[in-house]
Amino acid sequence: HPDYIKHGRFGDWLENNVDWAFSRERYWGTPLNIWRCSSCDNYECVGSVDGLRSQSSVSGLTTPLDLHRPYVDEITFACPKCGGRMQRVPEVIDCWFDSGAMPVAQWHYPFENQDKFKQHFPADFICEAVDQTRGWFYSLHAIATLLFNRPCFKNVICLGHVVDAQGDKMSKSKDNVIDPWAVINNYGADALRWYMLVSTTGEDTHRFSTKMLEETIRKFFLTFV
């Protein structure tokens, strides 16, 4: 919900989608679990800790095992094709892949908690802002379709953004950002909640200014004073 996002923005994104190159040239992140042979250029994708431990002539394993950088980069093993040394490629995985793997990763599925996973998958409800049509909504959908050939959620609500009084995106460079804590301290949390509730429907963009908030307070809250 709303349908015009489902069949519009999100649907158009899926129809015109391209392959997801999810490796990133970063230091922090989930290390890409692919090793490359320095001799014959063979690539091996290691799918589990047990699979890594079972590699021929493996070295560099720490106790306890730490699969983050820089420790994982020290793990090498013999190439199954030529006997050379396999070294992990330097890239990490796109953080959106991490977030999209949440339904399985939170239960360490399929390595354990199979029953708990089945009880909670797919999720009854998820909610995020409209920009997540190309972010979390997509990564959830793509990974669940790949693994289970079905969505990982039953219901979703897509919310609009909060913008300034002119409808422009709030940005530090534009100096139009409104500190929510300052608003709460000056007007109270209930006034802010009520304004966000009645100003527009959830899926629409919320225009916000202190003048708009004051008008809401005058019309509603002061009626009961």
TrEMBL record:
Domain Aminoacyl-tRNA synthetase class Ia, first and last residues per copy: 6-205
From its record, what is one biological process in GO terms?
isoleucyl-tRNA aminoacylation
InterPro entries given for it?
A: aa-tRNA-synth_Ia, Ile-tRNA-ligase, Ile-tRNA-ligase_type2, Rossmann-like_a/b/a_fold
Which Pfam family, just one, is annotated for this protein? tRNA-synt_1
**Which GO-annotated molecular functions does the record name?**
ATP binding; isoleucine-tRNA ligase activity
Q: What reaction does this enzyme carry out catalytically?
A: tRNA(Ile) + L-isoleucine + ATP = L-isoleucyl-tRNA(Ile) + AMP + diphosphate
Keywords in UniProt for this one?
Aminoacyl-tRNA synthetase, ATP-binding, Ligase, Nucleotide-binding, Protein biosynthesis
Q: What is this protein called?
A: Aminoacyl-tRNA synthetase class Ia domain-containing protein
**Origin organism of this chain?**
marine sediment metagenome
